[in-house]
Amino acid sequence: MNHIVLLALVATLGTWFVTALGAATVVFFKSPNPKALNLMLGFASGVMIAASFWSLLQPAIERAEAASGMPAYLVATLGFLSGALFMWISDKIVTFSRNRTDNAQGKPNERLNRIIMLILSITLHNIPEGLAVGVAFGALQGGSHNMESFMGAITIAIGIGLQNFPEGAAVSIPLRREGYSRKRSFLLGQASGLVEPIAGVIGAMLVVYVEAILPFALSFAAGAMILVAVHELIPECQQNQKAQPYTATMGIVLGFAVMMLLDVMLG
Hints:
Blueprint: H1 3-23, H2 34-68, H3 72-105, H4 110-138, H5 146-177, H6 182-191, H7 195-209, H8 214-237, H9 247-266
């Protein structure tokens, strides 16, 4: 295995491990503190938004023209929109499958649907996270920006790892509420993060072996991450906005600031 791909695998195994740590909270808690969960999900949103620009879009724009010969703005825009479209289509497929299941049963199985959609939604948006880490490590193949690319990839892995903790808890704890055992809730919670190493290896291999697609792949990952953050994480963390008007918002601001600081300092 190419050493760059191996680095991407190790990094995404690390982000999966943090998901597993988050899922393990089900052993100690029956339900999460809503204020703390909103803060963590807001933090995750801020991390993803900041990483989308500083660690993905900015490097994509800088490399686009040299790598592909196309205008940088065109490569970045097409990649960004393609990533968002990919996630939108994936979400539509999941929704369509759920509706077909409901129709086949004659009536919605609400409990089953809640569990399936919870796991699928978290798993689905772990794909661009793994892809983002893999693509970032794939950029190390270049040579002229080795240290910069390496620190950028590490920054993305750290940021995604941080926001994976509440995601693991967000799957396992509701499953426990639905009557699943602690062991089964943990196993299903950590399993939602297993797609990250797979997506990470795929992203790294694409970039390593087809280097010209690097700017497009970086932009693609950014578009996918932005859609996930805006469509899923931000609405979720704002559910108790009336009771806690600024908790989630401060989490978003803090997550953005931390990720920006890490990227600027280490980049």
